[in-house]
Every structure is written in structure tokens, then in C-alpha cells.
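dumping this here before i forget
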Amino acid sequence: MIASTTFSIIFLLVIVTKTSSMDLAAAKKVLIKPLYDVPHVENQNSAPKITVSIYYGSLCSDSVDLFKYQIGPSLAKFHKYVNFDFVPFGNADKKIFEGKWFFKCPKGLTECMKNKWQACSIHVLPSKQQVLANYLVCYMSSTSEVHSGYQCTRNMALYDEYYGKIKKCYMNRELSDSLMIQYSNRTRSVLPKSAQIPSIVINGVYNEFEQDEAKNDLENVICKYLHPRPAGIC
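structure:
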């Protein structure tokens, strides 16, 4: 009886250790883009850029509204001063079974698929000149549940160069799962359990008291972090 119990404990420890190791290994396989870009040369005020990280789910209605009514209008206005950073995991959950990752999203399989497509879009598309940010605003604003990626690459003249690369990443389960694990780990490490989706994080620091304002007046929150405040913008 004692020997059987000891074996069971050892077996469980092996499973937990193996699962944790696979989680870490999966995340390490992906070359992560830097969160901070070099400020644009045309930034004559020499104001350092701040990073605004958006933690969101692709079919969450509040996330969609944030992209349509807050992020979209802010892109052109703050392009010299803000790096937008996107984390498309939301309130999803992950489990590993027989060496493969499986994801469960609040809005079902379609949301998980769209989260993963956006993760691959972030991995493939260039972040400078706001190509990526504008693409994600287009994607999140699209009413199509299936063809948003196709439509937005067509609309933005990105199809020939990037659509195939995004699709290849998406179809590569090892790569796309690794990206999702990366975003899962970031979400869990940065946001408290009480945080809602979407959440806005400035310069890597979550501020509970800024969330409501950021979701309704993102431009005003951004201006609070710009020193000196750019004339004519804030």
C-alpha cells in the first residue's frame, strides 16, 4: 500500500514537472518582438515614446469597442509618441493533453481561432509605421467572423506580401500555440485576477484606477504620461 502511494506521488510529480517544462519550452521557441520601437526621426520634440499594452479578446464586445472608438482614432494623433502593444488572449484558458495545447475561450472556438490569427499577425506584420496597429483595428472592427484577416490585408494592400505568411504561421500548430502560450503567460503575469478584459497597461504597469477612463477616453490617459505634453495634441 505504501509502495503504491509512493509511486502515485512520484508519477504526479513527473507529470507536473513535464507539463511546466513543456509550457516554458513552448514559449522559448518563439522569437519575441521587442515591446519598444526606436522613436521616429520626425519626432522633433524628442519626447520619449510610451508603450500602451492592450490585453483583449477578439470577440469580446468591450474589446471591439475599444479598438473602434478609442485605439483607432488615437493612432494618427499619437503616432510619434505611443507604441501600441497587443496581447490577444483575453479570458481564455489553456490545457495540455498528450503533448498538445488546447485553448478554451469565453466566446467559443471562433474566438480562440481569431485570437490565434491575431497572434500570428503580430508575429508577421511590421510594427513600425503603424501597419500592425491599423491592421488590428481593421480586424477587430470587421463584422465578418471568418474572413476578417483576408479582407483587411486586401483593404490595406498587404495581401500579396503578408497574408500567406500569416496563414502559414496560423497553420503551423507548434508556432501558433507557442505564440498563444507567450500571450497567456504575459496576461497572467501582468494582470491581477480581478482585472477585466479588455485591460490597458501603460509602460508595463497595470493601474486599476485608470481602467474605466482609458476605455472611455484613452487619449486623455495617454496625455497624462507624455512629458512634456506635445502642443496641439494634449
